[in-house]
Amino acid sequence: MSESVSEAQAVTQAAAVVTEAEPEPEYDPAAPAPLDVPRTPTGNAEVDAQLERVADVDHLATDGHIEVYEDVHRGLRDALTALDARPGPPGPSPTHHQSRS
């Protein structure tokens, strides 16, 4: 029975050493933490690239988020502006709207 007691003591001592050697990290609310926000592809490569850029905040402290968000906002605004600059389909011809009086 003394062998079982000494084994139990050895395990307890080993656990105490491991606990002392590895203190739990302190909670830091500003430390990087994944937001785990799902990002669904839109089919537009420029927009999808900007949405993927949002994932960069998962590895930054909160004070670094604003730079990423501003960059993404700028990129999305540029992508929308580019859509407005594309020529659309031709409009109807003027003869189409003439009245038949």
From TrEMBL:
It comes from the Bacteria. It comes from Streptomyces sp. 900105245. Residues 1-20 have a biased composition (Low complexity). This is Uncharacterized protein. Residues 1-46, 79-101 are annotated as: Disordered.
